[in-house]
Design brief:
Length: 242
């Protein structure tokens, strides 16, 4: 049951909370004229609506708020699956790893197709924002293998920040896991989430990443969850990321 405070919100937030997609996806849907409020095409994603009184449609389908339910899923993504829910050209997406009743979720942050590991799936837009926005300083830890060992100078450069096309990366933390040919393995922790950030950071110093696995976000770790498997986050895990 919605209270008056809960029902009065922006259009894009209402759509996200109803499980229709991520904030970015719903902003795009409004921009593309796919959303109507009381039969009129919506023009502003910040428009205030009352989800108890206003009829909202997405692609001419009425949005039901009574069935709105937040889900929080930890997924161990294998290589070859894309972190997308709306690309018709993707052969395999993370949604293919979930049962039908959880396919109203979307990734809170992404891993590229060639990477594997921890992905959080949810339909809670505010939760997604707190997990992904750099200002909340949520650590993201990765295990990586490189084609050659890091030099001490290059390690310092990575830790201090690398100049990428869109600006300098924030400081990173790097730990040596194993440096014995042919395996050169490290842990790197960042709190940003730029596109293919770690691969680009290492490539700028002429290192090729052979394997990249995300093992932690905040206090949540991948643990012994098998690749391709998922589980629901418990209450304490959810609260730790909020």
């Amino acid at each position: 049951m919605f209270t008056s405070e809960q029902s009065d919100k922006t259009l894009v937030k209402a759509l996200v909370e109803a499980g229709c997609g991520s904030r970015r996806q719903m902003t795009d849907a409004i921009r593309d004229g796919r959303v109507k409020v009381n039969g009129i095409v919506a023009e502003a994603f910040t428009a205030r609506i009352n989800s108890l009184k206003d009829e909202i449609t997405l692609d001419d389908k009425v949005i039901s708020y009574s069935s709105s339910k937040y889900e929080y899923i930890l997924l161990n993504k294998p290589v070859g699956y894309q972190c997308t829910t709306d690309d018709p050209h993707s052969e395999k997406t993370v949604l293919d790893l979930l049962p039908d009743e959880l396919r109203n979720t979307y990734p809170a942050g992404r891993l590229d197709t060639d990477s594997r590991g921890l992905v959080i799936m949810t339909n809670d837009g505010d939760f997604t924002y707190k997990v992904t926005h750099p200002k909340f300083n949520k650590d993201k830890e990765y295990l990586i293998r490189t084609h050659r060992p890091l030099t001490s100078d290059d390690r310092k450069k990575l830790e201090n920040g690398i100049e990428l096309e869109e600006g300098t990366t924030s400081p990173a933390k790097i730990k040596i896991i194993k440096v014995s040919a042919p395996v050169f393995q490290y842990s790197i922790t960042i709190h940003e989430g730029r596109k293919r950030q770690i691969r680009r950071m290492f490539a700028s110093l002429d290192y090729k990443i052979i394997d990249l696995q995300r093992i932690r976000i905040g206090k949540i770790t991948i643990g012994d969850l098998q690749e391709g498997s998922w589980r629901k986050l418990n209450h304490s895990e959810i609260e730790s990321l909020k």
